[in-house]
Amino acid sequence: TGGWLDGSSDVQVKLIKSVLIVALFLLIRSLVSRGIRRSTDGAQQYRWNRALNASTGILILLVLGGTWLSGFGSLATFVGIVGAGLAVAMHDTVANMTGFLFILARRPFEVGDRIEIGGTKGDVIDLRLFQFSMLEIGNWIDADQSTGRIMHVPNGLVLRERLANFNKGFEYIWHEIPVLLTFESDWRKAKRILEGIVWSDTFQVAEDAERQVRSTASKYLIYTGKLTPIVYTSVRDSGILLTVRYLTSHKRRRGTEQEIWESILEQFDEHADIDFAYPTVRYYTPPESPVATTGPLNVTR
What's the pLDDT tens digit per position in 131-166? Predict the structure, then answer.
């Protein structure tokens, strides 16, 4: 037993030194942190404390490395262990740098593209080593228009989250406008009117869309299907539903919807046999009731 203690005395000394070094640095960090809390506001405290914690960890690592270096077989071993520790401690930083290289190599998006990632949509306005910035769209704003907020997104998110690009390969999106009519309306006439509106030159993008699909066919397996506008017919509880489906640029979705609705309102107003459906409640009084002299009572709201 005595021989083992004699052989391990150097290790024991280094362990004691290591404990004292860690305790000393932690004490210094605590004193400095206390001074930071007294002299700065909340935001500055947060930034200074993060820098203090990082610098304290690096200094402890360097000093302990110098203390234990003679106990390792080579400098390469020590560097490898330090590198592994830094990789674990700086996982997010490494992931963001890897994400940056992935963006440069694979180009899932570029500055100026409109994307959606992690539930956030926006136009990419800047790309840097650790993060990219987007001008947010949607959220509390109806349709795809800017909120005015700039969102800073870590590059590492492109490796973990689904990413949708509105510009790459196919620059158009399908948009649908539901138009609900009463059962008594002439739905055939209404459908012809809707087809005339959506088939006008203003909304014709099918030829350009087909060219884009052909140009990207070698890169993406895209089935074109029907690219021309169409009006679908279906029945709902409240009436007959005519759904207008058409292709549009992602930046013109709200504008084209407004143009179509204005045309619908103007043209439907010219036909007395076409009415919009809306929720109604009907109350019926049985004939044997004393108050049934007025017949059925219809109440609309």
Answer: 999 999 988 887 778 889 999 999 999 999 999 998
Output the CA–CA distances (angstroms, integers) from residue 175 to 93, 100, 158, 223, in the order listed: 39, 33, 27, 18
Which residues lie across from 181 on neighbouring strands?
240, 276
DSSP state string for the chain? -HHHHHHTHHHHHHHHHHHHHHHHHHHHHHHHHHHHHHHS-HHHHHHHHHHHHHHHHHHHHHHHHHHHGGGSS-HHHHHHHHHHHHHHHTHHHHHHHHHHHHHHHH-S--TT-EEEETTEEEEEEEE-SSEEEEEEESTTSSSS-EEEEEEEEEGGGGGTS-EEESSSS--EEEEEEEEEE-TTS-HHHHHHHHHHHHTSGGG--HHHHHHHHHHTTTTS-------S-EEEEEEETTEEEEEEEEEEETTSHHHHHHHHHHHHHHHHTT-TT--B----EEE---TTSTTGGG--EEE--
Instruction: Look up tokens 């592994």; give the residue.
Output: 84
Query: CA-to-CA distance for 21 and 84, rounded, in angstroms?
Result: 22
Q: What is the pLDDT of residues 8-53, one digit of tens each?
A: 677 778 788 888 888 888 888 888 888 777 765 666 676 677 777 8
Q: How many C-alpha atoms does 142 have within 13 Å on its Cβ side? A: 4
Q: Which pTM value belongs to this model? A: 0.59
Cα 74 to Cα 76: distance, rounded to the nearest angstrom: 5
- C-alpha count within 13 angstroms, C-beta hemisphere, residue 36: 18
